[in-house]
Specification:
It is a peripheral membrane protein. This protein has 266 residues and is α/β, with parallel strands linked by helices. It contains 10 helices and 12 strands. Helix content is 32%, strand content 28%. Strand 11 and strand 12 form a beta hairpin. The longest helix is centred in the last third of the chain and has 18 residues. The two termini are 31 Å apart.
């Protein structure tokens, strides 16, 4: 579904990704983890066609993303950014319609009536009853559900999430992660998400890809990847790893930062 082949990307004087190769198969749920600045969000934007690699290729369903227009890419992959300011007075219904831009264009997106795709997106995340409420009147958790509905309204089979639990309390973090897992199963989505919480990654993803200094440091199922060595080498903390007694997923117990004078991120 998504292929990165020896992808490099950077800015003048700073290379962010250094030859990343990554294959995500249809229906997978993949979590990208790593320290700030390691290239996670950049990788996600490359997968959405918002950035172009300086070397290597990014393929979506076998097609080179650099040969697709932004609108054509948006018909095939939806990206939910970390956060976005609410437009004063915009209702939930109006925000969800923004997701129809790629398919319906700027005028079709503004039609008064909702199409079945918007209606299903709102129903799937449980916000139909809020359709006429202003988005800026919602709580952080409620607003994130609406933004997820907007991403679903693009009608794509690939969903990219950039830190979907940022600024949310624990209850709403679990609500959003559970919602993403349910939608992935019900809709047959391929999900790639940037997560800071390794516990959420271990519990809700099929596979964890850990980035360090712009390269892939580890890649595999959570039970194989989440180890004390990963905590130290990738996240810069000394800690222990156990197992959840019911679900069996790895549980991390970070103790203290690694005491090393050598910078972990260059």
């Amino acid at each position: 579904m998504i292929q990165l082949e020896e992808v490099r990307f950077g800015y003048p004087g700073h290379e962010v990704l250094r030859g990343v190769t990554l294959h995500v198969t249809e229906g997978e749920s993949v979590a990208l983890v790593g320290l700030n600045g390691c290239g996670k969000s950049t990788l996600l934007r490359l997968c959405a066609g918002l950035l172009r690699p300086s070397a290597g290729r990014v393929l979506l369903g076998g097609d080179d993303l650099t040969r697709l227009s932004r609108r054509a890419a948006a018909r095939r992959v939806a990206l939910l950014h970390q956060s976005a300011p609410a437009v004063p007075g915009m209702t939930v219904r109006q925000l969800v319609r923004q997701g129809r831009y790629a398919d319906r264009g700027p005028l079709g997106m503004l039609r008064d009536s909702d199409d079945p795709v918007c209606a299903r997106a709102m129903a799937d995340v449980g916000v139909t009853g809020w359709a006429d409420r202003p988005v800026d009147s919602l709580s952080g958790g409620e607003r994130q559900r609406v933004r997820l509905a907007m991403a679903l309204a693009q009608g794509t089979r690939v969903l990219l999430l950039d830190e979907p639990t940022t600024y949310l309390d624990l209850r709403h973090q679990l609500e959003v992660m559970g919602l993403v897992a349910r939608l992935r199963d019900e809709r047959g989505l391929t999900v790639v998400m940037v997560l800071h919480d390794l516990g959420h990654a271990a519990r809700f993803a099929d596979r964890i890809v850990a980035l360090r200094s712009g390269t892939v440091a580890a890649d595999g199922p959570p039970r194989e990847v989440v180890t004390p060595a990963l905590l130290a080498d990738v996240l810069g903390v000394v800690g222990r790893v156990g197992r959840d007694p019911e679900g069996g997923w790895p549980v991390c117990y970070p103790d203290h930062p690694v005491k090393d004078e050598t910078p972990l991120v260059k």
